Amino acid sequence: AKGYEVAGFFFWQGDKDRYSLAHATRYEQNLVNLIKALRKEFDAPNAKFVCATLGQRTKEDAKDNDKLILDAQLAVDGGSGKHPEFKGNVATVYSNPLSQGGASNGHYNGNARTYMDVGLAMGEAMAGLLKK
């Protein structure tokens, strides 16, 4: 085989950004810029992108910086309608139901089940995007 093709990217991050209001308020725009920059850098304009939320907060109980990060991660999902250019090529996995406790800053209490379940959900989301 010669060469390779970047078919997609996975991203599960945001913990450190939730400690800074400046970072949290810019998270959505920075995430949009990251998606575009990765596609450009790797010459992969059609590469799919899957993001997972941090997981320690529900949509209903998130507040302050946690809410800003969660809302930003959900906003880039191609199904949200907020970023039409991401329709069919960006998905966000809402990971709160998959978390077995703990938080991102404590590595989910080292619970391997959380990592396995989030990873599986992200893989399934990627497979769904690649089928389109």
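Second entry:
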Amino acid sequence: NEMRGFSMGLLSIVFLGIATNLDNLFIGIAFGARKRNITLLQNVLIASISAITAYVACLFAVLISSHFSVYANIAGSIFLLLLGFIGLLKPTPSNSEVSVDRPLHIKETALLGGSLAINCLPVAIGAGSAGISPLGLSASVFLFSVFVLAVGIHFGKKLASCCHERTLNVLSSLLLILIGVWELFH
């Protein structure tokens, strides 16, 4: 019976790690399509921000009201919407101005990490309230964040090699807006 409880807890941690990082896949695709590279170090930084946030939120879930998680989700959603609208309004650079694998600046990395971390707050609070291990949850969030973001960027770059740049910019911006709207209402 203890083994069954352990395996169910582990399965929950894995599913929560995946669920909190689905946004990372689509954001990775959007950034890859824009020929924006996220280095391994930046990816680890983004994942660390989410993992630490998940750990703290899960650990103190009992003390945090459920109203706070709603506001955190709204803040993350608004940031993603702004990224999308800025991308739509930004003129498309000429081919000479586009550099392949242009990495994010440290500020962009921190903002993206913060936005993704804010989006995992409601799940972490719910998980903590349900008795899920904060350490297990944060490890799962970290591992899936690194993996899923890298996969998204890879697919985004593949998409960029076969499509017109303005089309990709519009599609990636709309994708960010769609994720922001989805997060706002869920």
